[in-house]
């Protein structure tokens, strides 16, 4: 399903229902984000972008920023577009925002999500710790990963 050009632009409130549907498709065994959760993220000024193909949202990513650090809140790509570089493009967009601010970036990732872990390692993240039973209700463990500030 990788036909079409991927465009990255700010996530819009009208994308919220589609985001919630994607969450439920990708994370059925855990606690997928609700429409209210996405609205709250957008309303609170966090940095969220969407990946669009022919005007259709196929992925999204969000970054929380404070004065001291950034936190990747989510990256998700629909099944039909996984493995085609959409997630990498979304991550690089978040990292560019963090680099503009000169801040380190932290995230949690399921320990069994090898493609995501490899993506993060390839972009300068390292393992910092393990959070047992982090994802609920599945009880899946998560690695905490971090990337130093890029102050170039």
Describe this structure in words.
The protein is α+β, with helices and mostly antiparallel strands. Helix content is 30%, strand content 36%. The chain is built from four helices and seven strands. It has helices at residues 16-26, 35-43, 86-101, 114-122, and strands spanning 6-10, 47-53, 56-65, 70-77, 105-110, 126-135, 140-147. Helix 1 packs across helix 2 (35-43). The longest helix is centred in the middle third of the chain and has 16 residues, at 86-101. The chain is globular and about 35 Å long.
**Radius of gyration, whole Å:** 15 Å
Derived structural class: alpha+beta
Lateral arrangement of strands in the main beta sheet: 1-2-3-4-5-7-6
Instruction: Report the CATH architecture of one domain.
Output: 3-Layer(aba) Sandwich
Tell me, what is the CATH class of one domain? Answer: Alpha Beta
Give the mean pLDDT: 92
Secondary-structure element series: EHHEEEHEHEE
> How would you sum up the major sheet?
7 strands, mixed
Number of strands: 7
Task: Quickly count the helices.
Answer: 4
Uncertain regions spanning at least 5 consecutive residues: none
Termini separation = 37 Å
Beta-strand proportion: 35-45%
């Amino acid at each position: 399903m990788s036909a079409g050009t991927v465009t990255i632009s700010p996530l819009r409130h009208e994308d919220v229902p589609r985001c919630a549907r994607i969450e439920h498709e990708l994370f059925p065994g855990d606690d997928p984000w609700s429409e209210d959760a996405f609205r709250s993220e957008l309303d609170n000024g966090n940095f969220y972008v969407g990946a669009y193909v022919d005007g259709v949202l196929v992925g999204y990513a969000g970054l929380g920023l404070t004065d001291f650090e950034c936190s990747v809140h989510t990256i998700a790509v629909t099944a039909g577009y996984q493995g085609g570089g959409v997630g990498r493009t979304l991550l690089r967009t978040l990292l560019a925002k963090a680099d503009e601010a000169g801040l380190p970036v932290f995230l949690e990732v399921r320990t069994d999500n090898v493609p995501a872990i490899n993506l993060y390692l390839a972009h300068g993240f390292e393992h910092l710790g393990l959070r047992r039973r982090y994802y609920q209700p599945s009880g899946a463990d998560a690695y905490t990963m971090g990337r130093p500030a890029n102050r170039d």
